[in-house]
Design a protein that fits this description.
Blueprint lengths: L16 E6 L5 E6 L2 E5 L4 E7 L3 H9 L1 E6 L5 H7 L9 H5 L3 E3 L6 E3 L4 E9 L2 E2 L2 E12 L2
Antiparallel strand pairs: 1-2, 1-5, 3-4, 4-10, 5-8, 6-7, 8-10, 9-10
Bound molecules: flavin mononucleotide.
The site of flavin mononucleotide (FMN) has 19 residues, from β2, β4 and α1.
C-alpha cells in the first residue's frame, strides 16, 4: 500500500551537477544543482532548473552558455559548498582551491578536477516560476 504525498516534485535519485558560468566581469562561478536531467537525444540536450535569484541564472542568461561538472565522491564537500555559497559574495573556486578551466567550446568555465564535464549552449528557457529550465549540451568530456 503506497502513501500519497500529494502533487509534489519528489523523485529520486537526483544528480549532483555543478553548473559553471562567467559573470559580467569574466569571473568564474559554480553552483550545485539537483534538479536536472537528460531531456533530448537529437540534438543532445540536458535540462537544469535554476531559481532566477541565483547568480548563475543571470550569468547564463547573459553568456548563453554553461558547463556541468560532475564531482567524484572525493569532492563531496566542495560540491555541497557550491550549493550554499553565492558567487555574488565569494569566489567559490578560490575558496575551495579548485581551478576553473575555460571551455574551448562555450563561454563558460568548468571544474578541472571533476572527472566529467558537459559543455552547454543555452537553447531554451521556458519559465516555470520560480525555476527556469535551461538546456542544451554540446560535448561530453570524461577522464579516461
Ligand atoms: C545539493 C544541492 C542541490 C541544489 N539544487 C538546486 C537546483 O536544482 N536549482 C536551484 O536553483 N538551486 C539549487 N541549489 C541551491 C543553489 O546551489 C544555491 O542557491 C547556490 O548558492 C546558488 O549559487 P550562485 O548564487 O553562486 O549561483 C542546490 C543546493 C544544493 C546544496
Amino acid at each position: 500500500m503506497k502513501k500519497s504525498f500529494g502533487a509534489k516534485a519528489l523523485i529520486f535519485p537526483t544528480p549532483v551537477w555543478c553548473v559553471g558560468s562567467y559573470d559580467t566581469n569574466g569571473n568564474p562561478n559554480v553552483m550545485t544543482i539537483a534538479w536536472g536531467g537528460i531531456c533530448c537525444s537529437k540534438p543532445p540536450c540536458v535540462t537544469v532548473s535554476l531559481r532566477k535569484a541565483t547568480y548563475t541564472y543571470g550569468n547564463i542568461m547573459e553568456r548563453q552558455a554553461y558547463t556541468l561538472s560532475v564531482p567524484s565522491e572525493k569532492y563531496v564537500q566542495e560540491a555541497d559548498y557550491f550549493g550554499i555559497a553565492s558567487g555574488r559574495e565569494v569566489n567559490k573556486f578560490t575558496e575551495t582551491n579548485l581551478t576553473p578551466v575555460k571551455s574551448e567550446l562555450v563561454d563558460a568555465p568548468y571544474v578541472g578536477k571533476f572527472p566529467m564535464v558537459l559543455e552547454c549552449k543555452l537553447i531554451h528557457h521556458p519559465p516555470l516560476s520560480p525555476h527556469e529550465s535551461l538546456s542544451e549540451h554540446l560535448t561530453q568530456k570524461a577522464n579516461s
